[in-house]
Amino acid sequence: MENMEGNGRDGACVNRALSAVLSYLPLEIGGKVLKLPVQVRNGLEEIRLRAERPLAVTLGDADLFLSEEGQLTPLAAEGWVVPASLVERTVQLMARSSFYALEEDLRRGFLTLPGGHRVGLTGQVVQGMEEGGPGVRGIRAFSGVNIRLAREVPGAADRVLPYLLDEMGRPLSTLIISPPRAGKTTLLRDLARQFSDGDPALGRDGVKVALVDERSELAGCESGVPQYRVGVRTDVLDRCPKAQGIMMLVRAMSPQVVITDEIGGAEDVAAVQEACHSGVAVVASAHAAGLEDALRRLFLHRLLKGGHLARVAVLSRRWGPGTLEAVVDLARGEYLWQREG
Amino acid sequence: MGLWWKAAGSCLLLLAGLGWGLDRAGNLERRVYLLRGLALGLNMLGTEISYGLTPLPLALLKTASHLGGIGAALLFQGCGQRMEAGSGRVAAEAWAESLDDFCRGEPSLEASDREVLQTLGGYLGLSDPNDQMKHLKLAQERLAFQEKAAREAAGRQGNVYRYTGFAMAAVLVLLLL
């Protein structure tokens, strides 16, 4: 899993992903993206709309702008300025004019498009009283949209997989950590597929996998049906809060491994611990620059030091998204693999 | 021979007059029927939105399907299909286009009926379920008011049109004979 970019295998997936996203964009914006050369389009990671500011795209580590003619430029002054009304229109198209059905998503500041593409939103926050006191009720007067193109990279987990199995070939409880946009979700998706399908050539049997896909990003479900290959023995609980979802699956689906994305608080940690106590391996991800940073986050410290997890895999973008930096055996406190330099 | 032609012409005139009268009276009744169907459709749409949290394109198509053969179904179906097509139309635009088509095919609807639906289109899908229900309820109440007026007009003017059409044709026949 050296580098998820440019390995040629995912070109078709990216094209499909981009086509799906473009169908939700106003023609004024989609048309400009379509004018980009195919190779550039395949490398797009993000499309960013900011009201009354230039249309921006992220290509690898480069933040560039799109001109009126649909040309890439590093100069903001040459970028095509997105009218505020077009930002509002884009959000309406992406929400399919169904804001009433997306209240929870808007409260958390993002939507997920079919195919698992996350759309981050900014604008004027509406506050209100929640159960625990004042809280965010939603966003209105949208001013910014960040579309992150999800992609399926079969084989993304090849390098890390041998370190995440015990001597019997069964998955070990693992936390995958990295900063944002380093390939955690793509790796989790491929781990789900590989755990679930097994590898008959290597004599490794598949196991029952349960996915808690809170934001529809891991499996990219449409009407509950996964659009990504997440494995033949995988059950998906789509758009379910992680903490509840983990326990629901443990009780109802008798999985051997539960996979979920972005552990975000004490409630999630408690659910992971509970699942581990139930004899189920849990593979999850969390935001942190490295193991030391993860240990500084209070709830992750509890999880990492609690003896529930067997492995930690650290990712970065050093050599592109999905660069494996290290794999740590938590029980022994030693690095099983570490990138040099 | 000439008498036969006169008799045949008179019959045709009487039939034409009667047909005109029946058509005008039918239009008045058609308007009542459509307004009732539209209000029923909005009620069903409200259920899909507030209880099912069904995405708007699907909610519109389901409403059309539930309405079945009722004429108002075409408005909901047209809007749902336009939004499903992924043609870059937001709800207000798809609704306005569908309303144009619908009203072209249903001349019995009056400008005031259309205005109720046009106003609603600007709010469709843009707020939380409670607010959506308020807009839908308001539109239903306005349509009910329109329907009441339309029913009264149909009762009052329907017979007038029927008799007037026949009577005018009869007068014409007498004048021509």
In helices, the fraction of residues of chain A equals 25-40%
- As a whole number of angstroms, the C-alpha radius of gyration of chain B is 21 Å
Largest interface, counted by CB within 8 Å of the partner chain's CB:
A-B, 17 and 22 residues
Percent of residues in β-strands of chain B: under 5%
Mean of pLDDT of chain A: 90
Q: How would the global form of chain B be characterised?
A: elongated
**Gyration radius over CA of chain A:** 20 Å
- Note the total helix count of chain A: 10
Q: List the total number of helices of chain B.
A: 6
Name the poorly predicted regions of chain B. Answer: none
Query: What fraction, in percent, of the residue positions of chain B are helical?
Result: over 70%
Query: How many strand segments of chain B?
Result: 0
The class by helix and strand makeup of chain A works out as: alpha/beta
Task: Sketch the topology of chain B as an H/E string, one letter per element.
Answer: HHHHHH
Major pleated sheet of chain B: none
Description:
The complex is a heterodimer of chains A (341) and B (177). Chain A has 341 residues and is α/β, with parallel strands linked by helices. Chain A contains ten helices and 15 strands. Chain A has helices spanning 11-22, 27-34, 38-43, 84-94, 103-108, 184-197, 242-253, 266-277, 291-296, 298-305, and strands at 44-50, 56-59, 62-66, 72-73, 110-113, 117-130, 133-148, 174-178, 209-213, 234-238, 257-260, 281-287, 311-316, 323-329, 334-338. In chain A, the strands form two sheets. In chain A, strands 10-9-11-12-8-13-14-15 form an eight-stranded mixed beta sheet, with helices on both faces. A seven-stranded antiparallel beta sheet of chain A has the order 4-3-2-1-7-6-5. In chain A, strand 11, helix 8 and strand 12 form a beta-alpha-beta unit. In chain A, helix 8 packs parallel to helix 10 (298-305). Mean pLDDT of chain A is 90; it is low at 1-10. Chain B has 177 residues and is an all-alpha fold. Chain B is elongated, with a radius of gyration of 21 Å. The two termini of chain B are 15 Å apart. Chains A and B meet through helix 4 of A and helix 2 and helix 6 of B.
